[in-house]
Design goal:
Rossmann fold, three-stranded parallel beta sheet, mainly alpha, 2 domains, Tyrosyl-Transfer RNA Synthetase, 335 residues, binds tryptophan, single chain, 13 helices
């Protein structure tokens, strides 16, 4: 049997944060060392245009996210690491899939529904400011995944629906045109797939409550100090399960250290002390990678060359499959 393929992408908007790290980057880098799988990692820069129409920000974020993967130790000799826009077959496949994806399926996408609901609550037209990019986002994502016949897609919980849609679209294509695509499955890190942000809601670029992954040490300390807590005094027992500080702790600590902190909470650890320990824990895990990250940011030409080499390898997969897809749907040379 051919090796399992694992694929994951990160949209190039914003700066990677601890939630991305815990939910996606860290498990992905660990998985990339697994010899029994073939891994694909990419920068979803076309996805970025859905949310961000500021070219400089897209560019900067692409550099930052590429540097992040490399700094975290992604082994680019073993895994295929590329930028979505360097693989033209992905957008070609997107169109073909757009022509088999049911509009009704897209109507049910969470991101679209949330936009419509927000509009309705604001008394706007339901589709106010909704672009076709936002609406058909799951089709582009399906193309990312199906283009490499990925079996497994590690994602945060909020992305499960998109993987299901990719399966749906793949099944429909296969049904119409014959077996072409693998049906992908989502893989969720059970423990801490969704990290809370500094305000206690899910850590997300859109809530402005993130802690950037490679903040300089002093700023990391500051950011951790800003995590919202209640007003319980030192000595008063605190509920770990209701605390972002504890939740972030659990995402970085091993089981024994997590159990210890749980007891400290029950014994009334002061918020300041808990945060100090949290900073030390997070900082020790990230400090070395942060140095590599800073060096990479200072050398974009190196990052670029790594990406271009990756795209060449990616196209060894995507070009033949796209050829097969074209033939399957009746596009190609006349014979
Ligand atoms: N939509 C994903 C996110 O916002 C990023 C993404 C794009 C992705 N294409 C993908 C993730 C393909 C996994 C597979 O997090």
């Amino acid at each position: 049997m051919a090796k399992q393929r694992v694929l994951t992408g990160i949209t190039t908007t914003g700066t990677p944060h601890l939630g991305n790290y815990v939910g996606a980057l860290r498990p992905a880098v660990t998985a990339s060392r697994d010899e029994s799988v073939d891994s694909f990692y990419f920068l979803a820069d076309y996805h970025a245009l859905i949310k961000c129409q500021e070219p400089e920000k897209v560019r900067q974020s692409t550099l930052e996210i590429a540097a992040t993967w490399l700094a975290l130790g992604l082994d680019t000799d073993r895994v295929v690491f590329y930028r979505q826009s360097d693989v033209p077959e992905i957008t070609q496949l997107t169109w073909v899939l757009t022509c088999v994806a049911a509009k009704g399926l897209m109507n049910r996408a969470h991101a679209y529904k949330a936009a419509v609901q927000a509009n309705e609550e604001a008394g706007e037209d339901p589709d106010f400011a909704v672009t076709m990019g936002l609406f058909s986002y799951p089709v582009l994502m399906a193309a990312d995944i199906l283009m490499f016949n990925a079996h497994k897609v590690p994602v945060g919980r909020d992305q499960i629906q998109h993987i299901e849609m990719a399966r749906d679209i793949a099944a429909r294509f296969n049904h119409l045109y014959g077996e072409t695509f693998v049906l992908p499955e989502a893989v969720i890190e059970d423990q801490v797939a969704l990290l809370q942000g500094t305000d206690g809601r899910k850590m997300s670029k859109s809530y402005n409550n993130t802690i950037p992954l490679f903040l300089p040490e002093k700023q990391l300390k500051k950011a951790i100090n800003k995590i919202k807590t209640n007003l319980l005094e030192p000595g008063e027992p605190k509920d770990p399960d209701d605390s972002t500080v504890f939740q972030v702790w659990a995402a970085f600590a091993d089981d024994a250290e997590t159990a210890r902190m749980r007891r400290e909470f029950e014994n009334g650890i002061a918020w300041g002390e808990a945060k100090k320990q949290l900073f030390e824990l997070v900082n020790s895990e990230l400090a070395e990678a942060r140095e590599r990250y800073e060096a990479l940011l200072a050398d974009p030409a190196h990052v670029e060359s790594v990406l271009l080499q990756g795209a060449e390898r990616a196209r060894e997969y995507s070009a033949p499959l796209m050829q097969k897809v074209r033939e399957a749907v009746g596009i190609g040379p006349l014979r």
